Amino acid sequence: MFDTIRHLSFYTILEEHVRSYPGKIAHAFGGQSTTFAQLLERVDRLIDALETSGVVAGDRILWLGQNSDRIMELLIAASQLDAMLCPSNWRQSKTELAAQIDDLEPKVIFWQNEEVGPEIRAGRELASFKGGRWLQHDGDGEDSYESFLASGRADRNDHREVDTRAGALIIYTAAFDGRPNGAVLSQNTILLENLVLAPTQRISNETVFLAVGPLFHLGTLMQCLTVFHLGGTNVFVRRSDAQSIAQSIHDHKCTRTWLVSKTMDEIIELNHDRRYDISSLRSIPYTEEWNRMVTVEPVETHVPGYGQTEVMGLAVLPQYGRHAIGIFGRPSPLCHMRIVDSEDRDVEPGQVGEIVFRGPIVMNGYWRRPELNAQRHRNGWHHTNDLGRREADGSLTFIGPKVQMIKSGVENIYPAEVEACIRRHPAVADCGIIGVPHPQWIQTVKAIVVLKPGSEATEKDIVEHCRAQIASYKKPSSVEFREDMPRLASGGVNYKLLDEIYGGGNYPGGETRTS
Amino acid sequence: MFDTIRHLSFYTILEEHVRSYPGKIAHAFGGQSTTFAQLLERVDRLIDALETSGVVAGDRILWLGQNSDRIMELLIAASQLDAMLCPSNWRQSKTELAAQIDDLEPKVIFWQNEEVGPEIRAGRELASFKGGRWLQHDGDGEDSYESFLASGRADRNDHREVDTRAGALIIYTAAFDGRPNGAVLSQNTILLENLVLAPTQRISNETVFLAVGPLFHLGTLMQCLTVFHLGGTNVFVRRSDAQSIAQSIHDHKCTRTWLVSKTMDEIIELNHDRRYDISSLRSIPYTEEWNRMVTVEPVETHVPGYGQTEVMGLAVLPQYGRHAIGIFGRPSPLCHMRIVDSEDRDVEPGQVGEIVFRGPIVMNGYWRRPELNAQRHRNGWHHTNDLGRREADGSLTFIGPKVQMIKSGVENIYPAEVEACIRRHPAVADCGIIGVPHPQWIQTVKAIVVLKPGSEATEKDIVEHCRAQIASYKKPSSVEFREDMPRLASGGVNYKLLDEIYGGGNYPGGETRTS
């Protein structure tokens, strides 16, 4: 099954980088730099320590912390054991964390105390699964990350056979049906996507990438993976924070990052006296002040393309459709795309249908969701739950999610998940969630609630109930109470009417969503 | 073994191009253009016709003709049957052709009458293998290519399971040991290399590539394959000829090709009255006159990188080593490289050793050469038979072939092969081949011959003997007769002394060759 001479994996790539880039910095984080040779030694120790802890093929390793270079070294180590790393969303509530622990039943858990410790401890308490070895990322005792790493042998010269088609990474995503699902991605899928991302995102061995966005989303993580594969340098900050960002760009001469406009404004303000030299950053033009501080590069396109976690981030890119009608472009050389109706028949160009994919960038499936996998991968194609249209020249216009979704900043919020949470409140009979336009966050969440006869609850009660159960960014910003829920003939909530009554709008995909 | 949802093959890529590039020209050859949709229909018919002819997985299909778009459609069709296409070197002698037919035992042979017919018929006669169906590429009767294609069904909608790791293409190469060997390359290997070639060679869906070089070498064929994969257009000329080249660039607005300086001069002379518009060509700067006719693009580098057929053409590229010490660059993201001594131990940076590779671009092996494969792939690494040196910054300096080789134009000539041919002459006792510097062809072949006692042979006898048995470009341009052959203590021919006596030199790799 496994053919040594044609083998390519995170681990063998790291070995090559030690030969190809002697002395080069692989990772930088918090004033600490790690060369490729040092990284290989750390990974070797981790492999040994994980194996000693009983980690075997198919096991899960859970990261409950913020951004760190350790996520990358753990991923390389885990993959060499055919085990999987899941970098968890640290903004989750204790209830969500407990559900994730129970879903994954991880063999080893790395957790962070600072900022997120109380919620994690509460989630651990809540979880039914009581196994797994807990190690503290930011501790320094016996059960700390560094003690664990140091317990492993460095000289293993690891040349075991590894199945690069097996799952290596689990990213939770898309709570269409009310609960998040873990997309399982293989080394093969990741390494192939890297080869498409490198040229289209202009990532090379000269790139010094500053990872600001959360590594529990592919948006930032896939760039780190491509930078690693190409032999560039990854710099990490714990979370988005203007001061750490400016300091990191200054210290490491970062050439690339991705920042929201609010953060760019904060950096401009912070750096009014030019104490940080951030001119190494090749950045898109923004404000005049920003442009004076960074290297402004001509940008070919501002359209990011189309994809989702389940197809390793990006599947359709504008670089394959320059001058095309559909601004999202065409499928990358790694995938095939069809637009289909509800019976999986191709629709004509110009007609809207569901976008489906095939190719090596499709995930292995969701972790422990056999029915959902059968449904999403029916007839040999991955169904995205997204709507799109092929234009006359074969290019794609992405329309929007097939089911209702709310966009808050970079986060996707699935009404079904928030509704399920509110319905669990003892006073609630029914609930509908809409998105209300917001100048900075695109949308905010509004709950329309019907109480049980004789029950009472205030707006604050509902919001606090949500805060305890789901990630803070998913909780409603406002709650409206009604006597009854308007429903369609089909039985579904009449969201169009709720939008009209309560000012909903600005949804991704506009008016085209179907229910 | 085969996972539908992650499948990527020549055939599925062609299906996607029909959707992504409706109406676009896939191939142009001799005034005839073929859209992707038409190509899919032709490939479907070919698959059916080949299957009806009994072609099954592992079978060989032999192309005995010059450049044609049919090589590409046959490759796609053959690969869908897990069969292999071998585009043969049409400059081979009847003896070489016969040996190749016997080596491959092909199920179907497509042959060309024009220019190469007599030699092919003689080779067919000479071959021991008498099986295989012979079809004429440039005929129009019952046994012609088009009749064969037309006999296949077009509506098969072929979705069979294909093993993309199986051999799809056989390219004969490297007669280090006196006979050429067929490197077997899989779809996987080809498709992956395409992803590296596209950005480094600036090939995109907007490329219109004119294939001038022979398609029996990867140099040109790998570019056609990348252009196909990316959705560009391939234009073919039968062989290098200034008039056909200029006409094709004019007709199809070709953006890319590769020409030797002699051909560029011929085009300049031919086009003195500007009857052909060849300005679409994005070309390297050459003479002033040439620069006025084409679009002169700034070129980042003139160094092509390092590779060989056995690693799908290019493995080390200067794009991964900008500003590096070794101008050949660093290994691509698809392979790993070591520099080793005769015991396969790593040599220190700065030391010369044999270049060895690992990764998905390594060939499956040579066709029917189990011992040679074991030797070349020993210890899990592909041994290139080439010498190189890692510089202090990890980059590669390519030194030259480990065994003596002569370079004539773009062709590699292996002394062992020419010597073996001359030794078969009844009057010859011993023979040594050297390369003599030539202002246009880099080197020409000189034979030093020792005759058997009492035997006689003239220079013309030896040259004609070679002409009948090996490709014309390999035959000696001159022959010197001696009483005895100078030999080393090891028993090998003392080539250094022969070079000194007879003016040998200008070898690829200079003085560093080892025997």
Automatic annotation (TrEMBL), chains A, B:
Magnesium among keywords: no
Hydrolase in keyword set: no
Xref: SUPFAM superfamilies: Acetyl-CoA synthetase-like
Location of the AMP-dependent synthetase/ligase domain: 14-367
Pfam families per the UniProt record, alphabetical: AMP-binding, AMP-binding_C
Database matches in InterPro entries: AMP-bd_C, AMP-bd_C_sf, AMP-dep_synth/lig_dom, ANL_N_sf
Residue ranges occupied by any AMP-binding enzyme C-terminal domain in the UniProt entry: 417-491
Keywords: Ligase
The family this protein is said to belong to: Belongs to the ATP-dependent AMP-binding enzyme family.
Protein name, entry field: AMP-binding protein
Species annotation: Sphingomonas oligophenolica
Taxonomic placement: Bacteria, Pseudomonadati, Pseudomonadota, Alphaproteobacteria, Sphingomonadales
